[in-house]
């Protein structure tokens, strides 16, 4: 599986040369864009290059490499626009490019090391800039990652940053008869509960997140009743703070989940397939019970788990989420009243367990069923993630 990532590195000594390069580059992009817009339909990148190359080189003074990149990028943007038009999302419009963003191809336009990036600039050829490399970014320079098209961006704080895009091909664990599976339920009392084929389980609480989010909620309610402008600003501030907090918690919890999976030699992690359908039908019964772990935070946690799993060579399998909390994992009896808040007690066979753990066990079982089916068919199922 291909793992992709963007590493953000601050450029310590941006100069006028870099700023001017970005300006002229966006000028070139906007020129090419205007050509396509007035033409009234998409133009292939080769043809567009033939039309705009002379102007980019002579009038704007761009280097030949950039004069080739620009038509390719602009043609690509209009191709995407065309697809969006087909889906009825937007109308034909002129795409504009900001002077605060510049896309560069690896090797052709930039090269990079741990502490410097060399960029092709307009006046001085290739110029080297110092980058501030953070401890957690060092690992991406160990030679195992491939650098791809990246960006120089001026952020709102006025500083320039290099957004380095990287990718790596991670080997997947082979599926075998003896593979260990793990189901993860994102529950109401714990952020997540995991259960493996060997019946090892773990509860991931996420610290005091529940209390903190409740606090935020009551603060928001109080502010909303005020309705003043400053109250609105405060609400925005609080919700940004809460989002950052949730993000941190989701990072920590997803990391713990993957650590637990690795310790138990898990090959496949099962998650409920909530993408797309989660808002409408399947979740209705449980959603009201779910504490304030709102849908975006919930989706984010799934995304983080997925990403970290791929990194560890563990597959993710999404399973049907229907009745995972109401089904008895012993006798498969499904009933609403099997679950009473935190407790699961089967009305048919009398089996009792923590309700979230019972759900995680059901998810593990569904994941295993899919695994066995693929093994017997000698191929992976169509729903296998292709991330
Ligand atoms: Zn039962």
From TrEMBL:
**One GO BP annotation of this record:** DNA recombination
- Stretches assigned to the Cas12f1-like TNB domain: 298-363
Give the residue spans that cross the bilayer: none
Give the highest taxon in the source lineage.
Archaea
Task: Write down the Pfam families for this protein, in alphabetical order.
Answer: Cas12f1-like_TNB, OrfB_IS605
Stretches assigned to the Probable transposase IS891/IS1136/IS1341 domain: 165-277
Q: Which GO terms describe its molecular function?
A: DNA binding
Q: Which UniProt keywords apply?
A: DNA recombination, DNA-binding, Transposition
The cross-references to InterPro entries, in alphabetical order and at most eight, read: Cas12f1-like_TNB (IPR010095), RNA-guided_DNA_endo/Transpos (IPR051399), Transposase (IPR001959)
Sequence similarity: In the N-terminal section; belongs to the transposase 2 family. In the C-terminal section; belongs to the transposase 35 family.
Protein name, UniProt field: Transposase
Which organism is this entry from? Methanolobus halotolerans
Native organism taxonomy: Archaea, Methanobacteriati, Methanobacteriota, Stenosarchaea group, Methanomicrobia
